[in-house]
Amino acid sequence: MKNGFSFPIKFFLLFFLSFLLLFLAVAVSFLFQELKAEKIILKAKEQQNIEILRRIANDDVKSVASDLFFLSVHPVLHQMIEDDNPVVRQKLADNFKMFCSNSTLYDQIRFLDESGMERIRINFNQNQPVIVSEDKLQNKAKRYYFADTFALEPGRIFVSPFDLNIEQGQVELPLKPMIRFGTPVVDLTGQKRGIVLLNYFGAKLIHNLSQALPDSMDSFMLLNSEGHWLKGQNPEDEWGFMYEDRKDLTLAKRYPEIWKEISVQDEGQFSSDQGLYTFATVWPLAKGMLSSTGSGEAFQASASVLSGKNYYWKIVSLVTTEKLKILRAAIFLSWLPYLGVVFLFIIFASLILSLALEHRKQALKERLEREKLQGVLEMAGAVCHELNQPLMGASGYSELVLMDMPENNPQYENIRKLKTQVDRMTVITKKLMRVTQYKTKSYLQRNIVDIDAASEGVNEPD
Question: I need a surface site. Which of 170, 327, 353, 397 has the fewest CB within 10 A?
Fold first, then answer.
């Protein structure tokens, strides 16, 4: 029995598409959960990063306050206050210079007397501290930081707004972000005799914050209480309040809804069209510290004094939408090899199952054909058994009649034709006995067994 075999494309597609849809549903669900988990981790990490930056900012301010108190009660300083002479003044300048060299945190260390005149001034001078000569000392009585510091009670500290250094009435170039820390100095009788002033490198603070988290995905920003960028994503946006034509460069103006969310809360996290924002508030003023509004003008007084809750910075991190897309793509790519393996397994499994199903279908078809053939053989055997004897008799008698009948007898031809048909019937019964396969043909709008095609080795009589 010969049966053809073709690749079961329909079965293959049925299994493949079914498995693929199931796989895609599971994979999408899994990836969604993975992305959700990664986002939770990212949010927690960003909150942790912001807290680290806030602590760094607060610690830096505390360390400056400690240095300021140390210098304000320096024995040589009080010796100079009681007995101002060139030898003592030089000794104090040498001490301040050594301190400046060792700390590397201060652009200037100064002692100003009660008139606002600089008496001692050390310039950092690119890590080469120098004592400014007496003829180059300036009177700073009209600068807001002197007036605001000298107005404090002894033991209190003035912290200036975080702004840019001004020299000779102009913003110094290259830009020098500064925070000035000052405290009154009193003599033995408790009378104010001047102030000690430290010009803290604001750039150091920004650098410390930037370097604290080098592997972070976020874009770090530092803003003052009015939403001006002290450190922004674009340098062009920074220090706008120091210039008349850039005072509107604030986060509040550019993204009002973002600033509203940040300004009304001490800390928080939210998503926007720009990405994931995380923020926290830094209050640099500890107990005993005051600040003021300061002034971008060289000789303009502060508008008002600021207490601890009114003087603050906002540390803001932004993981942009683009970076979030990159993160999602990285997660997908990390799982791509595993998804590829599963995809290949689906193809292999679909192929195996489709071939197995096709094989089973073929086996069932062959079994049905064998059963049909068996029925045909049994029927053919019964028919042949019943017909063989009558046919042999009819053939023998007709042959005897022909032998005794002259050929010119009118019935001779009819008898001969009768014998021919009997012989044909004999051949048909022999074919039935030799049926080896199940073959059919159409006959009167239905199928019947094709005896000629189903049998082997029997020829029609000549």
Answer: 170
